[in-house]
Amino acid sequence: MSLLQIEHVQQTYVDQYNGERVTAIDDVNFTIPEGQFVSLIGPSGCGKTTMLNIVAGFVKATGGRVLLAGEQITGPGVDRGVVFQDFALFPWMTVEKNVAFGLKMRGMPKSQRLEEARRMIGLVGLEGFERKYPHELSGGMRQRAGVARVLATEPTMMLMDEPFASIDAQTRRTLQQEVLRIWETQRPTVLFVTHDVEEAIFMADRVVVLSGRPSTVAADLDVTLPRPRVWKETARDPEFLRMRGRLMTMLGVEDEEEAEL
Ligand SMILES: Nc1ncnc2c1ncn2[C@@H]1O[C@H](COP(=O)(O)OP(=O)(O)OP(=O)(O)O)[C@@H](O)[C@H]1O
């Protein structure tokens, strides 16, 4: 059985200024088996973030339903960990306190939390920064701490919304590789929203493409590139290049330099 089942999801918003109805998502259907990493991609405004928010339980779909392990999602829960673009760390807590907070959510006794938090911090390569506050870290380090905090809760599903969007290109590639390395040790099921075609392919087992608004699933492609993946090799793989070309054509991106939509 699939871990996540998205069935006929529809989302209409009412504009709070002019009262107009905007159908962001028309009819979206797809499933994710346990342990799979799925990228969700599509043109701007097609409802990627909305879809992720519905799975997170932050937004209630106006139509259809979403099931996690057979149970209908009706609100947020500790079984789903969300990593946002803007890190979502508590600014008043040190890195280790931020990560330990995730463990508290999981119900871990206080006596074990610090030790486990330090282990998670080591896993994301932040040892030595345990006592720093978020403002003392670079964007890439803050994002690593955010990933550590979510992983610490051992979520059934990890939901990531453009987690590397505000990070410079060089650091971004390093982080993508690191997040994959960590993912391979725990293998949580992931729904990863991005508008970067190369990132979508590099990270995932599967790329689900939404059409323009009001969206439906336009394509659902398996990525069979070998793991572990490193940019130096994966970017030259003929399958990577073939998929990139196909997705860019599908999304109407002409130039290689414009791989980011
Ligand atoms: N709370 C809201 N109220 C009204 N309209 C909304 C709301 N949230 C999203 N929308 C509209 O729904 C559509 C889909 O938005 P969403 O942010 O989900 O798209 P997206 O694919 O993630 O876009 P992008 O790639 O630009 O981030 C857009 O037209 C947006 O303006």
From TrEMBL:
PROSITE patterns reported in the protein's UniProt record: ABC_TRANSPORTER_1 (PS00211), ABC_TRANSPORTER_2 (PS50893)
Keywords: ATP-binding, Nucleotide-binding, Transport
Cross-referenced CDD domains: ABC_NrtD_SsuB_transporters
Keyword Nucleotide-binding assigned: yes
Tree of life domain: Bacteria
SMART domains, per database record: AAA
Boundaries of every ABC transporter domain copy: 4-237
A Pfam family reported for this protein in Swiss-Prot or TrEMBL: ABC_tran
Keyword Phosphoprotein: no
A GO MF label: ATP binding
Name the UniProt record assigns to this protein: ABC transporter ATP-binding protein
